[in-house]
Design brief:
It is a single chain. By secondary structure, this protein is of the alpha/beta class. It has two domains: 2-189 and 466-489; 194-459, Nitrilase/N-carbamoyl-D-aminoacid amidohydrolase (4-Layer Sandwich). Helix content is 44%, strand content 14%. The protein has helices at 2-17, 25-38, 44-62, 66-69, 73-91, 99-114, 127-131, 140-163, 167-187, 218-229, 266-280, 330-333, 372-380, 399-415, 461-465, 468-481, 484-489, and strands at residues 192-204, 238-240, 283-291, 298-305, 311-316, 353-354, 361-363, 386-389, 419-422, 429-431, 437-440, 447-458. The strands form two sheets. It has a six-stranded mixed β-sheet with strand order 5-4-3-2-1-12. Helix 11 links the parallel strand 2 and strand 3 (283-291). Helix 8 (140-163) packs antiparallel against helix 9. It is globular. It starts with a helix and ends in a 7-residue tail after the last helix.
């Protein structure tokens, strides 16, 4: 009993080490292979328990940043993640020819569920994040991150079978990995066309990390981004600012006595950004945060502004951070925690596209970049570049920021688009359609990133089809595995 439990924990820790910020992806293959071998031949209760231990060892370190964001929400999330992995172990049969395929299908199914439920989904510390750095990451261009997660697990099964010299199943697994990778390279971009090039600048204002929002600091944040933008001396077509760095008070608001600087007000912020767009002769995309006119909610949105000052596009964030931008079950949670946002952010309802003078930009604000369906919305509705204005300045450590870079890389692969990520204190990045991070800032650094990128049109299979092919694969495989005929063939082994 103790030895399988220890192996399960080791498996989870190895997989955790494969996820950013560590990112040692070969350890993920070892961890999955060890988990796969540990639950082999075990009865349902044992498979479930050992997989639960693997889930705990995997999710505790990779979601540690959530403790600083929501002490009440972090243990809930860890338990939910671990239960999902326990379900994957439960759905994997103890033996039989279909066991490897069922193992893959079970993981795909629980990942798809986890990415969408509860609270709209929490796709962090995922299998695909570890796999984005692998040589077979291009498979994501076919059927998205669910396929990449499946390929990663298949590669781990090949390793597990090879360790016991089961060469035939190992070779079959390797063949699947190779076929999916080649398919991603050859078929993923057939429906995408390259357009004209544009010169872009991604602005990071810098400043201290792990800070809380305070109205007295809004001017300092704004000024840091104005200072960084003032260093732009080359000709650019597009300037991207982060999320929530334009946080103005109404023009009639009186500056509190505790503030060292006068509050940034709406008219001043608008005028100075208009002047910046004119001075640079470029489109400015800036991230705004303010209270709604009715006072019952906050608004988190990005504006696209032309050099002549015209606002050509606005996008209000749709997918909000649970326990951060809105509080699920607020009346219940308030009994246990007093550190909750005073009001929720009001979600947007529009398509995830900003119309600009340099073409339509697909947009995923911050947390939305973790969700493949938000990028599909952006690119499926005409986005030619994907921008990700984000604000990670309040987060503890760099776990979530590193995982966000991995998510931006996944979205680049899936959509065959350039991805521009702008953060106030890190990490900002320029990511090619092949998921290469061409440039990235450091934490708290004030810096502008430059690149010449191309606008692209068309949709990859991953954008056109989404997760449906992999969902059907998972359901059909598990249906065959656990159907009446299969259930009669799978009997628990007698115990002594």
């Amino acid at each position: 009993m103790y030895r399988p439990a220890v192996r399960s924990i080791v498996a989870g820790l190895l997989f955790a080490a494969s996820i950013p910020p560590w990112g040692w992806w070969p350890l993920g293959l070892v961890g999955i292979a060890l988990w796969y071998r540990t639950i082999e031949g075990a009865e349902r209760r044992q498979r479930t328990l050992w997989s639960l231990l693997t889930g705990l060892a995997w999710s505790l370190p990779t979601t540690l940043w959530m403790f600083d964001l929501t002490p009440a929400g972090w243990p809930v999330s860890v338990i939910i993640f671990s239960i999902f992995l326990a379900l994957a172990g439960l759905m994997t049969p103890m033996e039989g020819r279909l066991r490897p395929v069922a193992f893959v299908a079970a993981i795909v199914l629980v990942e798809l569920i986890r990415w969408n439920w509860p609270f709209g989904g929490t796709p962090i510390a995922t299998f695909a994040m570890a796999a984005v750095a692998t040589p077979f990451a291009m498979s994501a261009r076919l059927f998205g991150s669910p396929l990449l997660a499946a390929v990663f697990v298949v590669a781990a099964i090949a390793l597990a079978e090879a360790t016991r010299q089961a060469w035939r199943p190992a070779a079959i697994a390797v063949g699947v990995v190779v076929a999916a990778t080649i398919g991603g390279h050859l078929g993923g971009s057939l429906f995408v066309d390259r357009g004209e090039s544009i010169d872009v600048a991604v602005v990071q204002g810098g400043g201290p990390q792990n800070t809380r929002a305070d109205r007295c600091t809004t001017r300092a944040v704004f000024e840091r981004h104005m200072e960084a933008s003032a260093t732009i001396t080359r000709d650019v077509d597009l300037v991207l600012w982060p999320e929530d760095v334009v946080h103005p008070a109404s023009d009639s608001t009186i500056t509190p006595g505790r503030c060292d600087q006068d509050l940034l007000r709406l008219a001043e912020a608008s005028d100075r950004l208009s002047q910046l767009a004119a001075d640079l002769d470029a489109v400015i995309v800036s991230g705004w945060f303010e209270r709604a006119e009715d006072g019952t909610a906050n608004l988190n949105y990005s504006l696209a502004q032309s050099p002549d000052g015209t606002i050509t596009g606005r996008y209000d964030k749709v997918r909000l951070v649970p326990f951060g931008e809105y509080v699920p079950l607020r009346s219940l949670i308030e009994r246990f925690s007093g550190e909750l946002p005073a009001r929720d952010v009001r979600p947007g309802i529009d398509e995830a596209v900003l119309q600009t003078d340099v073409g339509p930009l697909g947009i995923s604000i911050s947390w939305e970049i973790f969700f493949d369906h938000r990028a599909r919305d952006a690119i499926g509705n005409g986005g030619e570049v994907l921008v990700n204005p984000t604000n990670g300045s309040s987060y503890w450590l760099t776990i979530v920021q590193s995982q966000q870079i991995a998510s931006s890389r996944l979205r680049a692969l899936e959509t065959d688009r350039w991805v521009l990520q702008a953060a106030p204190t890190g990490f900002s990045a320029i990511i090619s359609p092949d998921a290469e991070v061409l440039d990235r800032t450091g934490v708290s650094e004030q810096r502008v990133l430059y690149a010449t990128i191309d606008r692209r049109t068309g949709r990859t299979p991953a954008v056109a089809l989404g997760g449906w092919p992999m969902l059907l694969f998972a359901l059909m495989t598990l249906g065959v595995t656990w159907g009446p005929a299969a259930s009669r063939r799978i009997r628990p082994r007698p115990t002594m």
